[in-house]
Amino acid sequence: MINRRQFISTAAAGAAMFARIPNVFAQSIDLIIKGGRVIDPSVQLDAIRDIAIAGGRIVAVEPNIAGNAGDVIDARGKIVAPGLIDIHTHAGRGKDGPPLALQDGVTGWVDAGTAGADNIDQVAAVARTSPQIGRLLVNISRTGVKSPEGELHDLNLANVDLARGAIARHRDVVAGLKVRMSKEVADVNDLECLRRAQEAAAPFGLPVMIHVGQNHSPIRSILALLKRGDIVTHLYAPPPNSILDEQGRLLPEVTAARRRGVIFDFGNGVNGHFTWEMAERAMKQGFWPDTFSTDWSVTSKTTGVVDFPNVMSKFLMFGMSVSQIIACATVNAARVFPAFDDRGTLNVGAPADVAILELRDGEFEFVDNYKGKRTGKQRLFPIATVLAGKRLAKA
Known about the structure:
Mean pLDDT is about 95; it is low at about 1-25. The protein is of the alpha/beta class. Strand 8, helix 5 (about 160-170) and strand 9 form a beta-alpha-beta unit. Helices cover about 25% and strands about 25% of the residues. The two termini are about 35 Å apart.
């Protein structure tokens, strides 16, 4: 797989080639997305542009593209962004999940620990047959998620050999490991379970995602066990043992972990994962998420998650720009896992995965995980999705 630097270089060469043969190019367009506000943080673009697609790839991003195309999408007044990448979902629980997420503009997803060694085969099958790219994190507990009782109270369930076997068996779709470290899930076993996840991941060079919030162990002890590329999800989970000290100040170990390459992910979820107060306090100290994710499942429409654009919209209330928000859901997310290395961008040569969104003004209610409500003045709505160069039919 080419790395991002090689990809951009190749894409630039492709753009130059098409510039030299405009007539051939014009005759080969499959789809044009016309007149949208194209926001592509991977190349620092925020401007009105057309996008031309051929053969499932982006072939041009220009102010005005003329030519015959098999399909044209009128995107005037809409935001045209790279397809959204949700790095913390439970879309792998069944075959219905990925198509539903695709309707919301999610063209890449990661199932974060739904299954462990005992039941990973089913989730891997969903990833392989998903219409969009899907990957999974193996739960260090052989049972996968057990709610509400928790899957790591019995330390014997955190079996390194079984986890390694699951990874090896499904290496094509496994992107890492997952450890849920809340007290209700692991209690006093939290640090040992993380050590075992790291042990299982080591031979494969894979990252570990940890679910934090109300942990038994202090967050500083947990962060000490993380390596570059590991992910902390639910970063704004409230105390005890949160990223803030008792005076509400950001712990120095948290910023140190980010400096050494640990990734901090929002992870909206529905129960115990964030409060408005925690988010606001951390962001006032400059600690913003690296990535957004939803903790999505097929029931999310009926919860405070709703969909990925709804989760993204919450950060408009805190002063993030639309471009910054889209970066957290596209290029930043793509950099977390090598499987998405050529995604999260609209650069020439990239796979033509596109999310078309509408930013609406009005009064919109958003909720945290503790029934706290806030009213925002803007919200993003999914309007259309293009996957591999083809417009997705609305459900």
